[in-house]
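Before the break, one more example. Copy the sequence into your notebook; we will annotate it together after we see the structure.
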Amino acid sequence: MTMMAIAGGGQGKEAEVRGVTLALRRLILSGEHFHNTRARQLQLGSSDLVALAHLFNSGPIAPRDLAAMMGITSGSITAMLDRVEKAGFLARTNNPEDRRSILVSITSAGQDAIQWLYEEFDASIREALTSLPGLEAAKLETALEVVSAELEAGSADQGPVRSLHPRQPPRRPHGI
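Here is what the structure looks like once it is written out:
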């Protein structure tokens, strides 16, 4: 189901859908600001907090798998894990199924930090939504699930868009 199907389809709804997409863009940016502010309060980087959230939700995981989930390199994940482990929010242990590898897991301090983050987020959303008279929460939840699924489907790795890269020199015709 697409945004147009949720909005009722047709050309008459196009302006309404555009307004919703702009509001969702603002929501995403506000969410990122909220996340970055909470990361600073915990004296972590933004990506550090993302890694902790992955560990909170998935349990112990190999560093290479966490790096793949986050779309970062092995060098970046190692530096990040060093930093977050030093802060006491995660631990590295030997993998009981493969002695050649390690697993990264969240510590109780890390669990407390992510639980606090989620409680802060939930409180902000609850306050905003309860202030809206006539809000049909079930319809909003359905719409957000559909939008989320569409964004997930659209974020499959398709490689860089070279024609939009600002550092890419313009192509010259052959023979020049």
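The CA atoms of residues 27 and 122 lie 14 Å apart. The longest helix spans residues 14-41. Try to locate both features in your own notes.
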